[in-house]
Design goal:
The chain has helices at 9-18, 51-65, 123-136, 157-167, 176-185, 204-229, and strands at residues 2-6, 20-27, 30-37, 40-46, 69-78, 88-96, 119-120, 142-149, 171-173, 189-198. It is of the alpha/beta class and 230 residues long. It has one domain (2-229): Rossmann fold. Strands 5-9-8-6-10 form a 5-stranded mixed β-barrel. Strand 2 and strand 3 form a beta hairpin. Helix 1 (9-18) packs parallel to helix 6, helix 2 (51-65) packs parallel to helix 5 (176-185) and helix 3 packs across helix 6. The longest helix is centred in the last third of the chain and has 26 residues, at 204-229. It is globular, with a radius of gyration of 16 Å. The structure holds adenine.
Length: 230
């Protein structure tokens, strides 16, 4: 079973429209939509924004829907001058950038007493997503690298520079690392796939709404093609 967590209402709505829906179940105020997408059994859900919503949603997908793969889609702010609005970033790994226990000697991002700094994506899913995106969205540039997540919409040059310096990440958003964290604890495969909506600096709030429709088109096309290949 494949779980698909979308951050944007419109994106999830489009996936649901393209699905053969078998059942919709409400758990913890979230609406889990089970059925077939591209001929595969999936559960599509909108987690809500932020790390706590994302982690709760992931655990329910594991416990109640028995997913063995989780795909997280949505939009993100670019952390690399070369990565432009409209490009797609596929995660190698994810870090919670707002975790800071550095007073005890841990690097920023390290969750104290955990055996990993970052939460890895499934390597075969990453490879497959890249191949599939090059076919599904041939005009869209695909990047592979670290995603950082925090309960913060990044919209200042200063914060952006700090994230680049500390984490060497490709993009920032607000859920992916929490989903990858929950997937890691449950020993299931996951990948984060994000379309770039803004540059995570002073221009971020202006760019964000303008790009949403195109981001949804690209990510829905990619998700459908990827699900059919899993
Ligand atoms: N999602 C899209 N753009 C973002 C940004 N700049 N910061 C956090 N989450 C985002």
């Amino acid at each position: 079973m494949i779980g698909i967590i979308g951050a944007m209402e419109d994106e999830v709505a489009q996936l649901k429209k393209n699905m053969e829906i078998e059942e919709t179940t409400e758990v913890a105020s979230l609406s889990f939509c089970r059925g077939k997408l591209s001929g595969k059994e999936v559960v599509v859900v909108r987690s809500g924004i932020g790390k706590v919503n994302a982690a709760i949603c992931t655990q329910i997908l594991v416990d109640q829907f028995h997913v063995d793969v989780i795909i997280n889609t949505g939009i993100a702010g670019s952390l690399d001058a070369e990565i432009d609005i409209g490009d797609i970033v596929i995660s190698t790994d994810a870090v919670e950038h707002d975790m800071d226990a550095s007073i005890f000697g841990d690097p920023i991002g390290q969750i104290p007493q955990m055996d990993t700094f970052s939460f890895p994506a499934d390597e075969s899913l990453v490879k497959l997503a890249k191949e599939v995106n090059e076919k599904a969205n041939p005009d869209v540039h695909t990047w592979i690298g670290r995603v950082v997540s925090g309960d913060q919409f990044v919209s200042s040059g200063e914060k952006k520079e700090q994230l680049i310096r500390v984490f060497d990440a490709k993009c920032t958003e607000m859920e992916g690392a929490a989903i990858a964290h929950a997937a890691y604890l449950n020993k299931i495969s996951c990948v984060i796939i994000r379309a770039i909506s803004d540059k995570a600096d002073n221009s971020a709030v202006v760019d964000y709404p303008a790009f949403e429709a195109a981001a949804i088109r690209h990510s829905v096309r990619l998700i459908e093609a990827l699900v059919s290949e899993i």
